[in-house]
Amino acid sequence: GAVVSQHPSWVICKSGTSVKIECRSLDFQATTMFWYRQFPKQSLMLMATSNEGSKATYEQGVEKDKFLINHASLTLSTLTVTSAHPEDSSFYICSARDFAYEQYFGPGTRLTVT
Amino acid sequence: QKEVEQNSGPLSVPEGAIASLNCTYSDRVSQSFFWYRQYSGKSPELIMSIYSNGDKEDGRFTAQLNKASQYVSLLIRDSQPSDSATYLCAVPTSGTYKYIFGTGTRLKVLA
Fold this sequence. Notes:
The complex is a heterodimer. Chain A has no helices and eleven strands. The model of chain A has no long low-confidence stretch (mean pLDDT 94). Chain A is 0% helix and 52% strand. By secondary structure, chain A is mostly beta strands. In chain A, strands 2, 4, 5, 6, 9, 10 and 11 form a seven-stranded mixed β-sheet that branches. A four-stranded antiparallel β-sheet of chain A has the order 1-3-8-7, with no helix packed on it. Chain B is mainly β. In chain B, strands 2, 4, 5, 9, 10 and 11 form a six-stranded mixed β-sheet that branches. In chain B, strand 7 and strand 8 (71-76) form a beta hairpin. The N and C termini of chain B lie far apart (40 Å). The chains are: A mainly beta, B mainly beta. Chains A and B meet through strand 9 and strand 10 of A and strand 5 and strand 9 of B.
């Protein structure tokens, strides 16, 4: 149980375009989903927290107009990187929690912006 | 600022030995603690959660919690080369479900 999927697993896009990443909880209802970013050899950085039907809460320093998060249902959250630039290239990982404190992570999406 | 601290390592142990990973946290009211394993290039995987003082065992893994000392550890018995990874300690911040992660300890199990 507690499986979280992400799609796509990797994506290459041109500078200035937008990319959408989907995060799904497959066998449980996720009351909260989290979006992280991780650069090589660095720690996970929390970008935002989203609850179903509510606006996402962004961490300090994360541009909410650039990283659009939609948590449309209890099993789906999406992250859209708008007007992507090479510095947005990173490993984006979502996680989901049910009614406990455990977070279950998706496999991640590797974004490369050329 | 609440903190979670881990020794970054690398911690090198021979195959078959016990690996001991440590984590300290600053928030005295923390009630739940998690250990994640992250292989290079992969996302974190939950391996243990612990809520009460004492030991919790799951297969080759044992989590130990001492709330008075604000200390949580992970023991890996009979370490295998496949255990080589970065181990992250995570503690939810008070009043939220957001985690504070330690920087992670890189474990190398030598064959």
